[in-house]
Design a protein that fits this description.
Layout (H helix, E strand, L loop, with lengths): L4 H8 L12 E7 L4 E10 L2 E10 L2 H14 L4 H5 L3 H7 L8 H21 L12 H5 L4
Antiparallel strand pairs: 1-2, 2-3
């Protein structure tokens, strides 16, 4: 299985690893089938994600997609972060093997889960649309 140089770089030198104390939103997602678990922490000021960190237990692709996803939403508005798709993460990493696309779906889910948590903690009555459940099973982009 061949990985792009960008995937290898984000795997060997992941960005934004760790935890944010007193985070404004925390999202934890996992895929029992492959054992990947991702946790995203966001700090929000004036509707902008000013900081984001992640902790991922999983394969190299799971770590690389988490790292890239944090890079793509840092400094962005919540609305822009909600528009991030798994295919945008895959594209930013210059591709993933088809059997690893589900990792990018998890990264998208973790971000959306953290934003949903932020909404809940702040009494904001907004729905966050999660990727379709079947994405995990067939690793199909949506």
């Amino acid at each position: 299985m061949a990985y792009s140089e960008k995937v290898m770089d984000h795997f060997t030198h992941p960005r934004n690893v760790g935890e944010i104390e007193n985070a404004d939103g925390v999202g934890t997602v996992g895929n029992a089938k492959c054992g990947d678990i991702m946790q995203m922490f966001i700090k929000v000021e004036n509707d902008v994600i000013v900081d984001v960190k992640f902790k991922t237990f999983g394969c190299g692709a799971a770590i690389a997609t988490s790292s890239m996803a944090t890079e793509l939403i840092k400094g962005k508005s919540i609305d822009d972060a909600l528009k991030l798709t798994n295919s945008a993460v895959v594209e930013a990493l210059e591709g993933l093997p088809p059997v690893k696309v589900h990792c990018s779906v998890l990264a998208e889910e973790a971000i959306k889960s953290a934003i949903a948590d932020y909404y809940k903690r702040n009494g904001i009555d907004k729905e966050v649309e999660m990727p379709p459940e079947d994405c995990h099973e067939c690793a199909v982009e949506h």
